[in-house]
Amino acid sequence: MKRFQNILFVSHGLENEAECLKEALALACNKQANFKVLIAHPGLPHGFDKYHDTYEKALFDNVKFCLKAAAEAMPEDVRPDPEKIPVDIEGGDMQAVRIIRRAIAEDCDLLIKPAENREGNRGYEALDMELLRKSPIPVWLARETGGKTGAFHIAVAIDPLSDEKAGRDLGLKLLDLAAALNSEIGNRLSIVSCWDYPLEDSLRNNVFVRVPEEEIKKTLEAEKAAHLDTLHGLIAESGIGEAGDVHHLHGKPQNVIPKFVDENGVDLLVMGTVARTGIPGFVMGNTAENILQKVSSSLLAMKPPGFVSPVKP
Question: What is the value of pTM for the model shown?
Answer without folding.
Answer: 0.89
